Amino acid sequence: MVGKTVIITGGNCGIGFETAKNLADRGARVIIACRSIKRGSAATKEIIKATGNKDVEYRQLDLASFRSVREFCENILKTEKRLDVLINNAAAGGLGNYKTEDGNHVGMQVNYFGPFLLTNILLPLLKSSAPSRIINVSSAIHKYGEMDFENLNMEKYWSDYLVYANSKLYLNLMTLELSRRLRGTNVTVNALHPGVAATNIFRNIKSDILRNIVLIVLNFLYKSVWEAAQTSIYLAVAPEIQNVSGRYFSNCQEATPSKLSRDPEIAERLWKESEKIVKLSFQ
Asked: Which of 126, 202, 258, 264 has its CA 20 to 30 Å from the CA of residue 39?
């Protein structure tokens, strides 16, 4: 990865941190994008210390704010000559039921609409840096998502679980439609299920007791954070998938997502609706 630039959202902790550290260890220039200045700066220092790679930076990005996304992208386009890998890793659960300053459900914006806008604004740089890769960190929970175009922002009904499942389903559909739009550009886009791991994605659970129980169970039954990061790393570096696009991976191999995730008509319609929601034509 020497000579290549990587942006990873949520690279300050959990799966994102392990992914960022691995890619930095391979010689990449790594830009960690997250909301917390304190956590982002601390993660950057820790990765530099662990890898000896000083070309690791933190830049603030709040996916709950389209203004922040645009400012982040504007800064990247001014300072970076290339972008070889974009990893949409950041996600959150248990955020509650309220709207952002942009009028969207907070969980849907952080997990889907924010990454959708971010990816679209950075596409010109990805194309000029080709061959390049976009990696969307989804989840097997997408299989429980619903496709209701009248409830894209939880306007009719909501639950924290549905927000997470729907946002991951939408990421899969975004992957499918974007791969179609990127044909012939030498830019690929793939989604993945990292495996369930005890990361701080559960930090927003209000009950300390419940949160601790969840983490204990996950630590006992499922992957370590290091293990969960391996598929993201694989999609970023593996030469054998350089020309593979629009697919879904798990455990470093191609897997089959839900039937909804593979519907090109729904994917195209969701893309058009998402463009309206993020006001893409007004960027």
From this structure: 126
